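Recall the central idea of this unit: under ordinary conditions, the amino acid sequence of a chain determines the structure it adopts. In this exercise we apply that idea directly, starting from the sequence alone.
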Amino acid sequence: MAGPNTSMMSLKRAREVLDATAQATPAELRRAFREAAKLAHPDRKGGDAARFREVVEAYHLLHDARPADRIVQPPATVARPARASEGKILPVPPLLAMTGGPMEHLSTDGRRIKLNLPPGLRAGDKVRAGEAEFEVALRGDGQMLVRGDDLWITVPLDPRLLAEGGRIALETPLGRRVVWITRKAGERGLVRLVGQGLPARGRHRQGHLFLRLTLQTRKTDTAAQTLRQRFAAAWAA
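Accordingly, the structure predicted from this sequence is:
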């Protein structure tokens, strides 16, 4: 799907403009962008408006091309292969695994089975419904993923906030969270909220909540709006 950053600039040229390698991480790419934007800014001695626009365009092109910035990461934890039939596997979304509650499961023979799940389920745990026993498999639902005891949520942020840090209130699948984003966290693209993951249960420890920070992109109606947003992102950096 083509985004607002469609350009005639090649990826090779974009890397040359930012002096970035093809293997640059998101944090390295942001640092390269900030350095190049400062040097090229027309308000600085030796700066140039055309060069500055090229820097902004190069950054957006490389950012949009990076698979690492897509929302599905890290991989969800899945249960080990079932020894019985596939119908004995119970796929549970991460939020329900955390909070517990009622759930309906459609078995392979077409039966609807009602379960009341306890909070803090992990992949591989066993749950029973009458005579049937199921093995839990945690499945990412597009908003939240699970790794071991930890929950992962992807959070798009404004470029300025990623570059400068600040205090923000986020609406997450777990409810409202107030988070302080440091510059280091913005560069790493990761914030850990201690003790806010899957609750402790049996032999399982209390998990943490990880916020994976990505650059927020906005859909615009006109080329002029797109250009203004790119300039705003560069100015904030």
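The chain has seven helices and eleven strands.
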